[in-house]
Amino acid sequence: MNYIGIDKHILVENSKIGCDLYLKVHVNGTSRYVLFCHGSEQYGTVRKGELVERSIERLYIQAKDYEKFFKYQEENLPCILESIDLGPKEKSRAVYHVAKKLTKDILQNIGGTEIDIDRAKNWVKYTIGFILNDPGAFSSLLSMTSHDYYTYTHSINLSVIGLLFGKHLNLSSENLNSLGTGMLLHDAGKVLIPLEILNNPGKLTKHEFEIVKQHPEAGFKLLRDQNNMEEKFLIPAIRHHENYDGTGYPYGIGGDDIELNGRISRIVDVYDAITTKRCYAGAMSPFAALDEMREQMIHCIDKELFQEFIRLLGPADRGLLNKA
Prior knowledge:
324 residues; two-stranded antiparallel ribbon; Hypothetical protein af1432; mainly alpha
């Protein structure tokens, strides 16, 4: 039986975990896992005190229960992010774990029955609170972004980086909410693209590329038909491939005709795509990616926003500002 370690501080006092918790003990040189708390039992002050008294920092769950633990983290994310016992790194890990599960669920179900958009909206709301209130959120969240490209990890990366960028731009809370939710769902239309095209390691044929170009409009229509999905949340889905010079798709609009959240989405989408490992290309370093965007893609993006994006990412990349 396989077990997975968890930080005790991720557990919310006076809550039911939903899966059994174990202690790891060593007997005659062999590791054993001993039941500490039933999943149906309230994890309260007494149990928490036992861990403190015994100086235990980690607990374990059975690997088969990880889905239940994901659900527990999602339900308790506000309390986890408000915990004074957890640092930014642990909180960021919880943010990403929750996002992975809910984004997978949404993308797997979006073409079928009605999906729970409120799960995405709530995750964005709690993540915004973390970003605005914790000085360590920026570096810890940025370090969590995945460097392997999958539609769901790319979507999470876009939402997180987009929210950090939005804070840097002093966007209102309302605009941050629509930006973060829209970017988390921006690639919903890819569920309708054949996997053999999405995972093609070589150059796409003209016909294949025309199929790929359908995903922004397809995603827009899929999301528009969901309950509780206002049009402001759909801007990243329909605009993230529109270029500032009007050469993008699906509509070929440009300049300020592209809404602000659309222009932000274009910058972050390009940046994340080339800093993650894809089936057809390796990952670039942040500096190399920004330099590539400045040299080869500056016509695609809002130049002033791009300068602010460089400022966001830190002093190491600000040498590019004079060239952008």
